[in-house]
Amino acid sequence: MSVTPLSSDRSQQDLDRLANLAEEVIRRARAAGASQAEVAASIDTGLNVNVRLGEVETVEHTRDRGFGLTVYFGQRKGSASTADLNPDSLQATLDQACAIARFTEEDPAAGLADAARMATAFPDLDLWHPWAIDTAQAIALGQQIEDAGRAHAGISNSDGASVQMGESLSVYANSHGFVGRERGTRHSLSVSLIAGDDDGMQRDYWYDSVRSADDFMSAKTLGDKAAQRTLARIGARQLTTRQSPVLFAPEIARGLIGHLIGAVSGGALYRRASFLLDHAGKAVMPSWMQIVERPLLKRGQGSGAFDAEGVATADSALIEGGVLARYVLGSYSARKLGLQSTGNAGGIHNLMVEAGAVDQGRDDFAGMLRRLGTGLLVTEVMGQGVNTITGDYSRGAAGFWVENGQIAYPVEEITIAANLRDMYAGIQAVGTDVDPRSHILTGSILVDRMTIAGE
């Protein structure tokens, strides 16, 4: 799958234009009396093609622009945005932001991140890989993926295949003199298939998400994977209510880590809406567990040299020896808590959950099934039954019942429940089967015990 030749790449010129506009608007904001100002500007370009049963359903070309401005008059803040980059629109946006700021209440935590924390090094993180695919080629690729899945005996229908190409350019600048440029690509392929039996229909899917199209799995591999997952669900049954160990597949396990991030993020903490309030420096996971943020990974899904406020990013432990080493903070939440920014304004960067186990072993997926022994493998969760204030976790689920380390049969229409505090403390192992399609990089996670509600 080819990439765009560098000679036709205008991204650097577009970034320069955004940077010049941002610096000019910041100068105007200071001239209008703002004590501080910041701009986030972006251009996003994409192609999205959907095919179903071999026919084209939708073709969408996108080119979106955004220009957001925040001004501070002391500790009064005003923000405004526009999608129009012409001078009159930018001036109107500035006027609106200034007007808002003059009428808002003072907020002691408002303001730019500290000037001394601004990034000064901007390494090439290998995030820019334009994909030279046109509409006809995207349609043909979608058809190949769907055909590969539909070729499997037992697949009776399709919800379609999609091919997406995306390019993003962004600039963040502020009145400290900081100007940060970022460019990245993100491309994806997916297919959803349907299998029927006497007891009803089953649906499943698979997808791939990469920075460079050269890293995609093949169309056949993707179609085969989706078909195999769909066919494996035929004959799914309910379980009787019980307690058992639960193994979360990697693509589901990252959600468990996502709940951890939510609970230790500044917004939840200063609002006192987290079950992990005041837990920094305390054990929240088993002593063998390590979770480290690595923002500078080459081709990482969440890589970046600076956060949404220009603060330099750096490798940093989140969980160290099972202990919560720090919170996840931008400058505003840090000030509210009397702490320092952790370089996480805008979110986390490439969180890596290290593989391991209570007995220091490291297992692939087959090994994790053997470790599970007899219990539930979860491959799908549904619903929003997670309360980050109390830690209560209750979600609809589907997957497979496992006996003696081997998948026995598919299950559906069950609910799994526990408290996240107990789930984290009860983690028995993390697999080496890491799912690379996210900025949360984890293998499967085995939890010692949960309640399964079924028949």
From TrEMBL:
Residues 242-454 form the Metalloprotease TldD/E C-terminal domain. Keywords: Hydrolase, Metalloprotease, Protease. Residues 37-101 form the Metalloprotease TldD/E N-terminal domain. Pfam families: PmbA_TldD_1st, PmbA_TldD_2nd, PmbA_TldD_3rd. It comes from the Bacteria. GO terms for molecular function: metallopeptidase activity. Residues 129-233 form the Metalloprotease TldD/E central domain. The keyword Kinase does not apply. Belongs to the peptidase U62 family. This is Metalloprotease PmbA. The lineage of its organism: Bacteria, Pseudomonadati, Pseudomonadota, Gammaproteobacteria, Lysobacterales.
